[in-house]
Every structure is written in C-alpha cells, then in structure tokens.
Amino acid sequence: MILVTNDDGIVAPGIKALIEVASKFGEVLVVAPDAPQSGQGHAITITKPLKLRKVDLYDGVTSYECSGTPVDCVKLAKNVLLKGQTIDLCVSGINHGSNASINILYSGTMSAAMEASLEGIDSIGFSLLDYAFDADFTHAKVIASQMIEHLLKNKLQHCKLLNVNIPKGPDIRGIKVCRQAKGHWIEEFQEGLDPRGEKYYWLTGRFQNNDDGEDTDIFALSQNYVSVVPSGFDLTAYDAILPLKQLENLS
Amino acid sequence: MILVTNDDGIVAPGIKALIEVASKFGEVLVVAPDAPQSGQGHAITITKPLKLRKVDLYDGVTSYECSGTPVDCVKLAKNVLLKGQTIDLCVSGINHGSNASINILYSGTMSAAMEASLEGIDSIGFSLLDYAFDADFTHAKVIASQMIEHLLKNKLQHCKLLNVNIPKGPDIRGIKVCRQAKGHWIEEFQEGLDPRGEKYYWLTGRFQNNDDGEDTDIFALSQNYVSVVPSGFDLTAYDAILPLKQLENLS
Fold first, then answer.
1. Closest residue of chain B to A76, computed from CA coordinates
2. Cα nearest neighbour of A80 on chain B
C-alpha cells in the first residue's frame, strides 16, 4: 500500500501527477487536505474534530479529502483508514515550490512525510521548483517514478525520510544526495488597512542561502541537479551537549 | 530586549509566570497568540493577513496579541515591532505540558523559540509537565530565572536553542543536559457524529518512549530532573548520505 498526501490540497496538479506515478507500483490510498495548507509545518488539530470525505477524483484510486493539516491526513490514514495494514511507502507532493534548506520546517508537504517516517514508514517528499498552478510536472514524474521504484525494492536503512527537490527543468543533469543548506527567510510584512480600517500585516519575503558548501541541496539545485536530503527528526545539537554541562551547576 | 511568546495564548498562566521572571532582567516585549495554538508546530500564516493588537494585561510590560501562530508572533516581533533592534533573548512558554522528545516537532512553544534561533537569537522554550490551567509555576519560575540569567551573561555558542522541560515537582533534583529521546505517539481517534449526523474524528493518544538511553530528556524527567536539550534546525540524517549515494545512479 502506498499512501499519497500533500499540502497544496487534493485538487492540486502536483498530487495528481504523484498519484499517476504511484499507481503504477501498486495499490494507492490518497488522503489529502480539502484546501491548500502550505506553510502548516508540523501542525496537528487537537482542539476540534476532523472530517474525512471520500471523493471521486482519480480513476480507480481510493481518495479522501480531510479537513485538517497534512500531518492530520497521515495520522488519520494510518490510525483509521489503514488501521492494522502495512504502509510500504508514503509519498507527499509533488509540492508546487521548493522545500529545500530550512523550508523543510515550514512545509506541510515535508511534515506529512516526516510524520509517516516517525512511524517507521519509508517516506519521500517531492517538490518542484515552480510555484505555478500550471507547472509542467513531466520531468518531475520521471524522477518520482525512479525514486518510488527504487525505495519499494530497497528499504531505507539509515533514515526513513527523503526530501527531494526537483529543478524547474527541462535540462536536469542528474541527482545529488546532499545535506540541508543553512539559510533563512528575509521577511517583510506588507502592511495595509482592512475594509474596517484596521491595520493588517501580510507575510512575504525571500529565501536567503547562507551556506557556501557545495554539498548542499541549494547548491545542487543551482547546478540543475535534483537534490535528495536524507532527513531525520532528531533536533538535538549534539556538539552543544558537553559545553553546556555547566548548566547542571545552576541548581 | 527580551522577547516573550508562547502557544497557550497571551492570557495563559504560564506566560504570565514567564513575563514576571523575564522582567527582572531588562526590557520585555510580549507578542503572543490571541487564542490557544497548541500543536501548531512550525506553521506560518501565508494565505491571509495577520492582526496585532496592543493589550494592557501585564503592568509595565508592552504586550501585543497576534491573530497568527506562535511562529508568526516571532516574525512580527522581529520584523515589525522590533525592526532594527537587537533581541538579546527569546523565551517561549512556560508551556502547560511536556515538550520533551519528538514533541518539539508539534509544539508551537518550541517552534516559536526555534524560529528566533533561526535568526541567530539565543532562545529557550520552557515547559512544565503539568497540563492543568491552575498548575503551580513556583519552581518553574526559579528554574527559568536561573536559565535566563545565565544565558544573558553567557551567549549560547554551539547552538541557539534550548528545550527546557521541568518536572511537576515539587522535589526537583537538579538539571540534566540531554539528548532528545526517541519516541512516538500512539494515536487513537475518538469517533462520533456531529449535530448534523456527519462522522467526525477527534485526535487523542498517548506518548510512548522508545528509548532506553539514560542520557535522554525523558529519562532525566522520569528521575525528577529538569531536562535541557540543546537543539538545532538541521534535519539532515548525515549517516545516511554515503549509503544513499547509489540514488545518484538512478538518472
């Protein structure tokens, strides 16, 4: 069983492309948000109930839209719809836009895949470096197909999650296995007045790479390679443990 | 300048306790959600505008409530309210409930602190292992005070974020600097029918520790120690890079 989800919502062209690819390799279940959920990160819904509705969007593929976040979709798929069944692979995306570098933290697409990986399920988040609704997913589908086929034959050993970003193309030079680049967002808030005259702030900004390493996802993408970052969920800064032992003397 | 935020909302007793502590050490700005935002993870608001409203809740402390997520609060504080000013420290919490182990991923409290750390600001997320609204923050305030004082005197060197969890007490044995324990949530969805007869699913569950290490946050807390996990934002699974180089031959 292959679980497919995303954060752009169940009608996004990117998930349609991913469903087409995944369906070649076995039975597929789609559980995806009923509305766009970009930037939802690892959010879960705890203070209100969730709805799941079966939809008939993709021929021969059982599909549900969910009122919650991308991570909620994975939790509902695993614990309700596929309870007791083995999920061989979870694929999330294909996201409209990059999830390289620290964008893995903000991305609903990557958080959904990470949630599955937390449960020991091999997972891949796919992103295409094109935000357009009518982006061309042709070459992204070829990459996704190769990756899915490989992972179904060769289980992931040293981690359970791959963050795969695909250049806009068309002339892609190959695949690079990389580390997450150091970077951050330079934010500006667009300020304005709402119809009632109350001030509002609307988030906008641009990503800045702060990493001159040639082994990063951002560098690979800049060279027109597909970036693959093996990813985990342990945020411990191990190098800092020993130097910070002095804190144990505070009390 | 010390920035204070949380995810339980600007009126939660936990943030009141933290404001009282932080105010002893210098000028404080509070920017916190106008409603509870537990489980929001690293969510940001991109598809709608945000509101900031000045509130008069804490004597002598400039405070704003924000319509967005905890991470939005930090972004607005840094880029709008404190634009161009130095933030010496960001403290988030005191959360009502544990954020140990993988709960750092789901926690709005920790994600707010992580967002500040991404900007190079020394940051601490504080959590008390007591979900009750009327939890006793007396000993948590003592710990928070010691940590804040220490970090204002000694900038963090090897990481920019501390995940501090405090046992319910009262007999706390000391502080342990630890790594994040491996664990996951065993979920169950409570199913029911809404007033219109439509099925709903409501997330519930219990945390399970899968880590028998004695150097973890979960172990320290079980022994009645405060746990301090130095944390980063690089999710790369470095051990997996070399074994996965074979993926570069796919294309």
1. B189
2. B189
Sequence-distant (≥ 6) Cβ neighbours of residue A125 within 8 angstroms: A91, A92, A93, A95, A99, A104, A107, A109, A110, A112, A113, A114, A161, A162, A163, A164
d(CA B10, CA B78): 18
Asked whether the predicted pLDDT for residue A251 surpasses 80, the reply is: no
Whether the CB-CB separation of B106 and B71 falls below 8 Å is answered with no
Query: Could you tell me which CATH number the domain at A2-180+213-249 has?
Result: 3.40.1210.10
Architecture (CATH level 2) of domain B2-181+213-249? 3-Layer(aba) Sandwich (3.40)
Please answer yes or no on whether B192 and A49 come within 8 Å at the CB atom. Answer: yes
pTM above 0.80, yes or no: yes
Distance from CA of A41 to the nearest CA of B (A): 5
Give residue-wise pLDDT tens across range A64-116.
999 999 999 999 999 999 999 999 999 999 999 999 999 999 999 999 999 99
Per-domain boundaries in chain B? 2-181+213-249
Beta A123-128 vs A161-166: how paired, if at all? parallel
